[in-house]
Amino acid sequence: MYPPSAGHRAALEAAAPGVALRVAGDAAEAGRWIEDADLVLGNRYFLQSLPRARRLRWMQSNSVGVDRILDGGVDLGDLVLTCTRGVYDDEVAEHALALALGLVRGLHLGRDAQRERRWPRLSLPTLAGRRALVLGWGGVGRGIARRLAALGVTVEGARRREGTERDEEGFRVWGRSTWRRALPQTDLLFLALPLTAETRHLVGRKLLATLPPGARVVNVGRGGTLDEGALLAALRSGRLAGAALDVLEQEPPAPEDPLLGDPRCLVTPHAARSLESPPFRWEPLFVENLRRFARGEPLLHVVDRKAGY
Ligand SMILES: NC(=O)c1ccc[n+]([C@@H]2O[C@H](COP(=O)([O-])OP(=O)(O)OC[C@H]3O[C@@H](n4cnc5c(N)ncnc54)[C@H](OP(=O)(O)O)[C@@H]3O)[C@@H](O)[C@H]2O)c1
């Protein structure tokens, strides 16, 4: 469900000889081709054409987070869903680091002053010496942690799996029933979570109130994991020093969204994974998974549909 370049198409065909590839150029074609398709590559037109599928077994998404597909209101039956986990780790982690540095060093305040041709003196902390908790310990969360550690931040992580452990890189990682204990010592809270039934508004008023005064929040996962009303109240009361958000509950946000106008808030338009032009970074993964599918081998990055990621 995307127009492949000639080279990518040739790689797909070589990976699965005998598999007939059809390219859906629009929704009508997608609806026709999906009827007899065993597999679909790519998100475009997928949900709208899915009700017409009769024998579909596998769908390869070009997203990391698959909440839109799982919550799309269409019955997926026993479809196997795979995602692009890992493909954008560096880019998203770099963006999170840029947001954190920008927030702590007041780049947003400098930019605001520049636009208004003001020259204020700013009192700014450093990242070095701060303590961070990274919520979500997938490729993105771990990528954020490594970068922060290199800048002198003390970093811990949190994941869904139970049990507190030191991971192979030496980070302390909390399990889902224990990570809240780390909050009172957390100057910087990073969210790198998928949006699932469990994570929706996981970070809300109570949790934000447990952070020390002057803490900051950075979200590069999904907007719905953070209660924006609670965040705004915490910013306005002065309890939180700032927030940097690449993802919002509603995208694009309404022009009057108060977070957009709050000077303590730095917002980027879901740009951590930014626009690509071909060749797409997921192409090698699609080719490899198609090869595996054709041979009946286990696919890479299968989504746990019950868990939602
Ligand atoms: N802003 C962007 O442009 C952008 C780009 C790419 C991805 N994203 C978002 O970032 C998310 C994370 O990406 P990823 O590749 O790192 O995902 P991932 O590999 O699927 O990792 C997800 C992590 O979240 C943890 N988690 C899930 N539910 C949890 C819960 N209830 N409590 C605590 N931890 C929980 C998981 O725990 P376990 O390790 O125990 O399973 C895992 O460590 C994606 O799902 C996507 O929505 C955003």
Fill in the keyword field for this structure.
binds NADP nicotinamide-adenine-dinucleotide phosphate; 309 residues; 3-stranded parallel beta sheet; 11 helices; 8-stranded mixed beta sheet; alpha/beta; single chain
Report on this model:
The protein is α/β, with parallel strands linked by helices. It contains eleven helices and eleven strands. The chain has helices at 6-15, 27-34, 46-49, 67-70, 89-104, 107-115, 139-150, 205-210, 228-236, 258-261, 283-295, and strands at 39-41, 58-60, 80-82, 131-135, 154-158, 165-166, 172-174, 188-191, 215-219, 240-245, 265-267. The protein has an eight-stranded mixed β-sheet with strand order 6-7-5-4-8-9-10-11. Helix 1 (6-15) packs parallel to helix 11 (283-295) and helix 5 packs across helix 7. The longest helix is centred in the N-terminal third of the chain and has 16 residues, at 89-104. It is elongated. The model has no long low-confidence stretch (mean pLDDT 97). The protein binds NADP nicotinamide-adenine-dinucleotide phosphate. The site of NADP nicotinamide-adenine-dinucleotide phosphate (NAP) has 31 residues, from helix 7.
